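If I may wish for something, please walk me through the protein I am sending here so I can picture the backbone:
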Amino acid sequence: MSVFSLDALDLAALLCSRVCHDVISPVGAIVNGLEVLEEEKDAEMRAFAVDLIKKSAKTASARLQFCRLAFGAAGSAGASIDTGDAESVARGLLADDRTKLEWNAMRVLMPKNKVKLILNLCLIAAAAIPRGGVINVTITGDGDTTAVTIVSKGPNSRVAHGIPALLAGEPENGSVDAHGIQAYYTGLVARAAGMEVSVDADAERILISAVPAVAKVETTEVAA
């Protein structure tokens, strides 16, 4: 079976579209708030506009900081990223009145691709609970033994159709669009980091695991 490969220019374009999609809404709200300040004389409306600008600016900043680590270069080749920084940007983006983020990990320097993988898996976990809930991130081991487990629980939790195939680099329709690029990219990062991702879903929770690919092969061989 031939392995699906996305053209580098298409990959870059789709990822840029994803980032712009995430940021355009709060930036647009800031513009709307500024227009209200320019045109309105009513004190209550002006106060509402200021509040809107503050909240939208905070949201835009959180999304940009998250995208910088999750999608950006984040340093030179072979660079490491502090998992504390990863936790901070994840909380800034995901934790709110509806969603609680539980982060169970020591603060260490980790290869950037593994950190990017964790953050992208958090996005998939968050998308699986659209009405909010709890996202639990657990990181164990170190170096080549690092493993990641992310559990999300919430009302009507479900993984979007096609996500496992995109993570595996085998899109079901033989192409990747703007809706699927993040999951496909996550699979690319996982393979670059020497990790293998699996998704298990039932009525109560979504379980996403990332383990060293070699370890999974060895486990399979022993079981056989």
Remarks:
- Strands lie at 80-82, 99-104, 109-111, 133-140, 147-153, 195-201, 206-212.
- The helical segments are 8-39, 43-70, 83-94, 112-127, 163-167, 181-192, 213-223.
- Residues 217-224 have pLDDT under 50 and may be disordered.
- Residues 215 and 221 are 10 Å apart (CA to CA).
